[in-house]
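Per reviewer request, we include the raw input and output of the structure prediction for the construct analysed in the revised manuscript.
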Amino acid sequence: EFYIGLRQRRATGQEYAELMNEFMSAVKQNYGEKVLIQFEDFANHNAFDLLEKYRTTHLVFNDDIQGTASVVLAGLISALKLVGGSLADHKFLFLGAGEAGTGIAELIALEISKQTNIPLEESRKKVWLVDSKGLIVRSRLDSLQHFKKPWAHDHEPVDKFLDAIKTIRPTVLIGSSGTGQTFTKEVVETMSSLNEKPIILALSNPTSQSECTAEQAYTWSEGRAIFASGSPFGPVEYNGKLYMSGQANNAYIFPGFGLGLIISGAIRVHDDMLLAASEALAEQVTEEHFDNGLIYPPFTNIRKISAHIAAKVAAKAYELGLASRLPQPENLVAYAESCMYSPKYRSYR
């Protein structure tokens, strides 16, 4: 009874496409080429199509696909300092193949491709996905949604998630399923038997939907897991040692990412900007953070972190020739800080 919106069913199909097109055309017509549009909480079947359609004509990004991917990649880059090797040396298995899962997978593959100079199609083979029907493999190609098709590799079908772990033998386990308690004791113990330091990212939220808790990850791995989650968890004590777990929160990325686009006057979003944001966030993790088991910096430093990310994103926009605010400021971090909103108000009492 208190709903203040339009009391009619949501548009779908052709009507929906025309409404979006009208909005996207009008917003650019009114505010110009540099207006930044962020897609948030669009359903899978619309999110990928809209991003693909408008990324070449508008300054647009989808936080659920690209922001999530960027913050998770940052955590993986940090975690490598604890487990060793490069991204290309690791094997990734996802539980969940929606917009978050496939978005993260694609950015990991892009970073591997960039680091190794191997084709993207080849670097994707390091990444495996499990959906509700089991491991995504080539024999399922005809029945897959289009955004899952790049991840259909040559392999016999595997129905059960635990069997997929035993067969693929991943070093990194990533949960983006939206289903709680799917990283069971047996799953974590299997990952721990395969890896000295298994990387386990339980990204689904809220807390009730997390694939496992921090306490479960540390206890079942006997304190060896490198863990981060989408939901916040408090410190965990195991065998006399205190473990702190990081939260892979999009709020680490999108404010700084958006600011970097704005201060550079970027006209398009390029995947290399997302990689730059990931690398910038990973750079903010110190030895002290690592000693506490963290692969993300404390959120209390978010303004400093955001300025650093904005500077790296803006620098990449200038490097790619996509920046329109010229000349380039000499100190992009200082310039980003000067452009940030400060919630300080005059006292009227």
